[in-house]
UniProtKB/TrEMBL annotation:
This is Leucine-rich repeat-containing protein 31 isoform X2. Residues 1-80 are annotated as: Disordered. The lineage of its organism: Eukaryota, Metazoa, Chordata, Craniata, Vertebrata. It comes from Clupea harengus (Atlantic herring). Residues 1-18, 48-72 have a biased composition (Basic and acidic residues). InterPro entries: Leu-rich_rpt, Leu-rich_rpt_Cys-con_subtyp, LRC31.
């Protein structure tokens, strides 16, 4: 029988902690290294060894002892560093998982985590263990505002940081000052997103931009809805010459006065590498577009221009087409909801032939486009067009016919939106018939409020069976109350097999005092939801579902969510 001492020894070895195992491994490596070291005499030629014996070369005993001490010190430091790293990463994991997120040494996303000031302070102390961190997202945590300095003080530990997102954090001017003072600690920072922080406006932005250095690496700057004032725009304009690497600037939802527009655009000529400029809902007017047109000559590399939701700019597009025609690299143009006039629409048709690289065009919510769509389609580079958004454009029967005729040429089309176009109802076959069966790249199809009929949805089911919709991820069929039960049964039954990539489905109805029941076709939908691997969102608003039917749908969706975790 084994002795009690042997038994206790084996039990003790089984209970050793992870730290003990790590220390043991390090000791074994150290011992192995020491065993491999050769005697000092082997480093000398025989003659030199003899000289040592004869006293010609004095023995360096003090030096040897000192070297041994240094080796021992280095090994101890290495052990401390490795063990500290293991313990530190354990603290990081515990902190991140406590917030319901997954730890990642390179990308840390803590958005919507209800972080407190204490959490921010704890995160700051953990940065020393995140030396490989490249992306940090703390967006939509209200209490980050006012406590950011505790974090920025430790940014020197994450010198590889490339992206910092602080959207909706209620940042204060003091936060921005602290962020500006820490910019030297993160020299590789490329992405700064401070959107939806009202505190950025009102001289807060200057606290940040005044700390920028010439040639800084910032490539993407987003300041959406920051309540920027004329003084802020001026400060930004003065900082733009320093940001020589700037490629993407987003100032959406900040009302920019004409004076600010002139200040901004006159400074943008220093941003020679600018590729994307977004001025969505900035209150631009006709004169502002004229100023922008003059500045466009300095943007030879501009690839995306967004002037959407600037209703006051109506009539201004016609005044900047001469400059717009020089933008030969422009691949995306968004001018939706700009109240384009007939003159604007004609000017657009004239300038499109010069935009040979154009792949994305959004002219939605401009009624005048419907009158000239046929002319517009005749000049668009259809074979390379990827996104075509024509929703709420007042498409007539003739313009819809022109679109149907153009579809076979749209071989690279990924997104098509013709929602709120009544001319589609009863004629969906015209649109679907031109799509290729095997090589269709369509990923997003939106047909909301198109007066679709049962026959239209039957054609959609047939197209799905042929493989036309095999790449579609988002399908919007909402607000089409004229579709009968047989149409939905066909789409979610025999047509579901052709929707393998579907992620989002919307078949909601308009609010009604007497909404119809979904029972006749819901079993087909439930079976489709269960079998379609990527489907994660289903909208059925204003349909009547029994409680047991709701429970079944929720149960299926819950299982899919857990399976995807």
């Amino acid at each position: 029988m084994e002795s009690s001492d042997a038994q206790r020894s084996r039990d003790g070895s089984q209970k050793r902690s992870a730290i003990d195992l790590i220390m043991n491994q390090i000791r074994r490596k150290t011992s192995f290294t020491e065993r491999r070291q050769k005697p000092v005499g082997f480093l000398f030629r025989p003659g030199e060894n003899n000289d040592r014996k004869n006293g010609g070369i004095p023995e360096m005993k003090e030096s040897d002892n000192s070297e041994g001490k240094n080796t021992e010190s280095e090994n101890t430091d290495s052990v401390d560093t490795e063990v500290g790293s293991v313990v530190g990463w354990g603290r990081v994991k515990q902190f991140v998982e406590k917030l319901g997120k997954k730890p990642d040494s390179q990308t840390l996303s803590l958005s919507h985590c209800d972080l407190t000031a204490t959490d921010v302070l704890e995160l700051a102390t953990l940065l020393t263990f995140l030396t490989q961190l490249e992306e940090l997202d703390l967006s939509w945590n209200d209490l980050v505002g006012g406590s950011l300095k505790a974090l920025t003080f430790h940014l020197q530990h994450v010198g590889k940081l490339r992206g910092l997102r602080l959207c909706g954090c209620r940042l204060t001017a003091q936060d921005l000052t602290a962020l500006g003072e820490s910019l030297d600690s993160v020299p590789l920072l490329e992405i700064v997103d401070l959107s939806w922080n009202a505190g950025v406006g009102g001289a807060g932005l200057r606290s940040l931009t005044s700390q920028l250095r010439y040639g800084c690496m910032i490539r993407e700057l987003r300041l959406v809805d920051c309540q920027l004032t004329d003084a802020d725009i001026k400060a930004l304009g003065q900082a733009l010459p320093l940001m020589t690497n700037l490629e993407d600037l987003d100032l959406s939802c900040n009302r920019i006065a004409t004076g600010g527009v002139r200040e901004l655009f006159s400074s943008l000529n220093a941003a020679h590498g600018l590729r994307s400029l977004t001025l969505h809902m900035c209150g631009l007017e006709q004169d502002d577009l004229c100023i922008l047109g003059e500045a466009l000559q300095f943007f030879p590399t501009l690839q995306r221009l967004d002037l959407s939701a600037n209703k006051g700019a109506s009539g201004g597009l016609a005044k900047m087409t001469k400059s717009l025609a020089q933008m030969t690299h422009l691949s995306g143009l968004d001018i939706h909801l700009c109240c384009l006039t007939e003159e604007d629409a004609i000017a657009l048709v004239q300038v499109i032939p010069s935009l040979s690289a154009l792949k994305e065009l959004d002219v939605s919510s401009n009624k005048k486009i419907g009158d000239c769509l046929q002319s517009l389609l005749s000049v668009l580079p259809l074979p390379v067009t990827r996104r075509l958004l024509l929703n709420n454009c007042g498409l007539s029967a003739d313009s819809y016919q022109a679109l149907g005729s153009a579809v076979p040429s749209l071989s690279q089309l990924e997104r098509l939106n013709v929602s709120w176009s009544k001319s589609v109802g009863g004629n969906l076959k015209l649109l679907l018939g031109g799509l290729p069966c095997t090589s269709c790249k369509l990923q997003d199809l939106r047909l909301s409020s198109c007066d679709l009929t049962t026959e239209d949805v039957l054609h959609l089911a047939s197209a799905s069976k042929r493989g036309v919709l095999s790449q579609v991820k988002r399908l919007d069929l909402s607000y089409n109350g004229g579709v009968g039960d047989s149409g939905w049964v066909a789409l979610f039954g025999e047509g579901a097999g052709g929707l393998r990539a579907l992620e989002e489905l919307d078949v909601s109805l308009r609010p009604s005092s007497s909404p119809p029941p979904a029972s006749p076709w819901l079993p087909a939908l439930l079976e489709a939801v269960a079998t379609l691997p990527s489907l994660a969102h289903v909208a059925l608003q204003h349909w009547v579902l029994r409680q047991d039917e709701r429970d079944k749908l929720e149960n299926i969706m819950s299982k899919k969510r857990h399976a995807g975790m």
